[in-house]
UniProtKB/TrEMBL annotation:
Keywords: Lipoprotein, Membrane, Palmitate, Signal
InterPro entries referenced in this protein's UniProt entry, alphabetically: MliC, MliC_sf
Coiled-coil portions: none
Protein name listed in UniProt: Membrane lipoprotein
Signal peptide: 1-27
Domain of life: Bacteria
Domain C-type lysozyme inhibitor: 49-116
Record has Ligase as a keyword: no
Amino acid sequence: MFFIPRSATAAGTLLGAALLATGCAGAPETPPQTSSSTPMTPAVQLLTYRCDSGATVRATYPTDTVALVRYQDTTQQLQVVRAASGVRYLNEDLEWWTKGSGEGATAMLSKRADDTVIERCEQVAPNT
């Protein structure tokens, strides 16, 4: 049988408590400093697509699997699905299929029920 003297156990407990208290009593955490000349970029970017009809579609992609598409004052949430090319998003009613990225990328908004194309669009620079 292994025997630890009571005084050694008490000393170890006191030492552990002292180390824990010292670690917690360190300098307070400060938020990272940012330079005033470095602009903060948003985590989720709003993209604008100009369509052949003259309509505008706005979309954000908050995760790799979700698109929030705004068309005619309504926002729809769509989920990514497998596509042969580009990125394709679906919900019960709509399909949003994008190809490429950046200004000039193409996108198509369609009705799922009968595959009718609602809009053919191209991504434009912000604020245009």
